[in-house]
């Protein structure tokens, strides 16, 4: 009997906010739905037990709201635009005027960054006269965080009032036409971790943020991508700003030659170790997303060379292109602010 259960639906008891959450447990086999709908499973005969599933939701509204309220109580700024700075791109934060600065370590329920080249602080202030929230340093799976934790700050942003997210990252260029220092606008992504059930929203769904099942066809807003291309033109960055498909690997190692060949076959233009969990969580809760990769190195999918990516190079290229990126992001922010009205 237990061998052909494909989906088990059951209810967990009332949680902290008094609502009743419904969980689905899939065992990957084809077969009829268990007749015991909405009943608690007892775990006998090798069946999935309720205790096998994390029923507590660490990114529930209540948990995330503690972080958001901590921030809102300590700043008069009310930003609607959030920015996540990738490796070596934290210099964007220097442009923030009248900042209220929060060390990640001081924000309740917030993770703490451990990566060299990443500062761990959140700034709220003005960029080009527009209120913004800037994350200087982000959280990566390779640091040991589960994906939900790497994306938790995006839910905090939502409760702080963020409506637009700009996510930047450092990426290795797979597209043969890319050069080091190019800026690739994310048109779409391939969520590689998702192929093996790794997802920031795996587990109970808090409907107050978004639906359990949600489409991602337009995760990287076309309106924002078009705007970015227009601004790139104004800034004389036409030859630098590209558009393409991003994918995320777990890291911390860069990819093998065989892995790069596979990613090229899949149509990937830029590969990094972040961003997708954050943009998925943002899109899920209705935040409009713009993301770009700074191409810090070209991926070498060839055995006949000694060229290899290294972290210092990645950080250094970030610094060199920092001025252009800062101007680009500042203009994006100013235009986004007018889109809200
Ligand atoms: N691979 C993965 N992540 C990266 C790379 C890369 O080549 N460059 C910068 N981040």
Structure description:
The protein is α/β, with parallel strands linked by helices and 341 residues long. The protein has helices at residues 61-72, 147-160, 192-195, 222-234, 257-265, 276-284, 311-320, 322-339, and strands at residues 7-11, 22-26, 81-85, 97-103, 121-127, 130-136, 164-173, 183-190, 241-248, 270-272, 288-298. It has 2 domains: 2-52, no CATH class; 61-339, Rossmann fold (3-Layer(aba) Sandwich), CATH 3.40.50.1580. It has 8 helices and 11 strands. It has a 5-stranded mixed barrel with strand order 7-10-9-8-11, surrounded by 4 helices. Strands 1-2 form a two-stranded antiparallel ribbon. Mean pLDDT is 84; it is low at 1-44. It starts with 6 loop residues before the first strand and ends with a helix. The longest helix has 18 residues, at 322-339. The structure holds hypoxanthine.
What keywords describe this structure?
341 residues; Rossmann fold; 8 helices; 22% strand; 2 domains; binds hypoxanthine; five-stranded mixed beta barrel
Q: Can I get a quick summary?
A:
The protein has 341 residues and is α/β, with parallel strands linked by helices. Helix content is 26%, strand content 22%.
């Amino acid at each position: 009997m237990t061998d052909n259960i494909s989906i088990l639906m059951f209810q967990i008891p009332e949680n902290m906010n008094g609502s009743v959450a419904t969980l689905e447990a899939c065992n990957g086999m084809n077969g009829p739905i268990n007749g015991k709908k909405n009943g608690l499973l007892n775990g006998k005969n090798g069946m999935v037990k309720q205790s096998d599933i994390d029923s507590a939701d660490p990114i529930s509204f209540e948990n995330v709201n503690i972080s958001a309220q901590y921030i809102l109580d300590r700043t008069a700024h009310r930003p609607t635009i959030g920015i996540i700075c990738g490796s070596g791109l934290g210099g964007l934060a220097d442009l923030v005027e009248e900042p209220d600065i929060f060390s990640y370590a001081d924000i309740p329920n917030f993770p703490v960054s451990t990566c060299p080249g990443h500062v761990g602080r959140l700034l709220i202030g003005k960029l080009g006269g527009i209120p913004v929230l800037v994350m200087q340093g982000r959280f990566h799976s390779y640091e040991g965080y589960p994906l939900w934790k790497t994306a938790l700050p995006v839910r905090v942003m939502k409760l702080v009032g963020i409506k637009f997210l700009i996510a930047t990252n450092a990426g290795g260029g797979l597209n043969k036409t890319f050069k080091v220092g190019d800026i690739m606008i994310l048109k779409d992504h391939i969520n590689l971790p998702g192929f093996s059930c790794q997802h920031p929203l795996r587990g109970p769904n808090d409907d107050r943020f978004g639906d359990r099942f949600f489409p991602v066809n337009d995760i990287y807003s076309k309106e924002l991508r078009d705007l970015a291309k227009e601004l790139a033109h104004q800034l004389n960055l036409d030859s630098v700003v590209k558009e393409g498909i991003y994918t995320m690997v777990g890291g911390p190692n860069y990819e093998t030659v065989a892995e790069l060949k596979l990613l090229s076959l899949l149509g990937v233009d830029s590969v990094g170790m972040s961003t997708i969990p954050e943009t998925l969580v943002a899109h899920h809760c209705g935040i409009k997303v713009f993301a770009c990769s700074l191409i810090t190195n070209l991926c070498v999918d060839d055995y006949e060379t000694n060229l290899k990516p290294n972290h210092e190079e990645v950080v250094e290229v970030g610094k060199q292109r920092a001025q252009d990126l800062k101007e680009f992001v500042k203009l994006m922010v100013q235009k986004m602010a007018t889109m809200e009205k």
